[in-house]
């Protein structure tokens, strides 16, 4: 990976703990992370190890108890786009009105939003008349595409994804992975994906990080594949090698935690 890529995110010595029944449970401990522009980083780890907590800290939904989080462009409210497993579309508004929330909340985006909206619809293979429909009329894949477009229209510096494709059928999942990966690379955006799917992490990531229950990263894998189309890369010999390496690290990590 080129060292001259700008830093979209710098996390330094980050710590966070929940307090329950007067007991302090450490979730994130002295964690460091750098994500560069145009880089897609996936985080794998056992359930409850702090992956989503880390995203919430980066998004500003939780306050760090120690350490710093620096995002390119500062900590302005639209610096981070957050995409969840369940979409956050307002059911009483049409798709078009949901997508134009960015212009309503940030008037300086109004001039460019219509052009961007049409470009995104094409990138995600959605017809122009979808803007007239309501979220309840859409399939799961279409709703998630709309949800991703909604986040992108805020023009974030960094995109956070918390298992956004896990509820989709396999074919839709592959198509959406490819569409998202292509858009991230085209726009030179930075993204962090939390997932339990090793295949998905390898297919769309530049780096895969393993998170342990100590709230730290215990493994890092640089993914350098000749074929980078997420739909085609699965099944290649290179892919199988990465899968074995990452699964071995993840399995030993989980086994250690369970012992």
Protein architecture, described:
With 259 residues, this protein is of the alpha/beta class. The chain folds into two domains: 1-79 and 162-259, Rossmann fold (3-Layer(aba) Sandwich), CATH 3.40.50.300; 86-155, no CATH class. The chain is 37% helix and 25% strand. It is built from nine helices and nine strands. It has helices spanning 51-59, 95-99, 101-105, 110-123, 140-152, 170-187, 198-204, 230-233, 237-258; strands spanning 7-20, 23-36, 40-45, 66-71, 80-83, 158-162, 190-194, 207-211, 217-222. The protein has a six-stranded mixed sheet with strand order 5-6-7-3-8-9, sandwiched between helices. Strands 2-1-4 form a three-stranded antiparallel sheet, covered by helices on one side. Helix 7 crosses helix 9 (237-258). The longest helix is centred in the C-terminal third of the chain and has 22 residues, at 237-258. It is globular. The chain starts with 6 loop residues before the first strand and ends with a helix.
């Amino acid at each position: 990976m080129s060292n001259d890529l700008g830093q979209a995110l710098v996390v330094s010595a980050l710590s966070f703990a929940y307090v329950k029944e007067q007991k302090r449970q450490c979730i994130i401990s002295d964690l460091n992370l750098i994500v560069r522009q145009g880089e897609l980083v996936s985080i794998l780890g056992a359930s409850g190890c702090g992956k989503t907590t880390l995203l919430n800290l980066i998004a500003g939904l939780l306050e760090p108890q120690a350490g710093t989080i620096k995002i390119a462009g500062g900590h302005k409210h639209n610096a981070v786009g957050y995409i969840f497993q369940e979409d956050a579309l307002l059911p009483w508004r049409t798709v078009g009105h949901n997508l134009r929330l960015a212009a309503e909340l940030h008037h300086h985006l109004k001039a460019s939003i219509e052009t961007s909206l049409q470009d995104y619809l094409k990138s995600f293979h959605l017809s122009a008349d979808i803007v007239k429909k309501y979220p309840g009329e859409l399939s799961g894949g279409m709703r998630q595409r709309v949800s991703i477009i909604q986040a992108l229209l805020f023009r974030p510096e960094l995109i956070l994804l918390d298992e956004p494709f896990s509820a989709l059928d396999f074919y839709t999942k592959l198509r959406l992975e490819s569409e998202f990966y292509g858009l991230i690379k085209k726009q030179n955006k930075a993204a962090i994906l939390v997932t339990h799917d090793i295949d998905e992490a390898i297919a769309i990531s530049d780096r895969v990080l393993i998170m342990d229950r100590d709230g730290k990263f215990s493994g890092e894998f640089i993914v350098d594949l000749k074929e980078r189309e997420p739909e085609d890369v699965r099944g290649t010999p290179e892919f199988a090698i990465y899968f074995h390496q990452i699964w071995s690290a993840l399995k030993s990590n989980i086994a250690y935690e369970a012992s």
